[in-house]
Amino acid sequence: QVQVVESGGGLVQPGGSLRLSCAASGSIFSIDIMGWYRQAPGKARELVATITRGGSTNCADSVKGRFTISRDNAKNTVYLQMNSLKPEDTTVYYCNGVQRGVLVYPWGQGTQVTVSL
């Protein structure tokens, strides 16, 4: 079954850090782009960060300089290191892959990140 499982979310104070993990059911080696997304209730899903098969990364302006995406092809896992977290980062985070412009995986359950005192 093709799927991804996100983990690593939790409750953290402003300024804190979390590392999210996205474990894929199969090899991610050949997937063009792996990405992290987030979606707040009542809002559209937002692309947070991407990493290409070659390792090039890009982040949304709202998280640039604070979040870092990486991938471990041997473990079929993608990570999102989140530093200097802000309350506005609070939401559910998801990951997915894109191959030839098409999403690879059904959306998973996501992992909840809450930034609060």
- Which ranges are low-confidence, i.e. pLDDT below 50, for 5 or more consecutive residues? none
Oligomer: single chain
Category from helices, strands and their pairing: mainly beta
Q: Categorize the overall geometry.
A: globular
Which strand-content bin applies to the residues? over 45%
Treating each run of at least 4 consecutive H or I residues as one helix, how many helices? Answer: 0
- Backbone CA Rg: 13 Å
**Count of DSSP E strands?**
11
| Largest sheet composition | 7 strands, mixed
How far the N terminus sits from the C terminus, by CA atoms, comes to 39 Å
The run of helices and strands is EEEEEEEEEEE
Annotation keywords:
single chain; 117 residues; mainly beta; 7-stranded mixed beta sheet; 4-stranded antiparallel beta sheet; 11 strands; 0% helix; 50% strand; globular
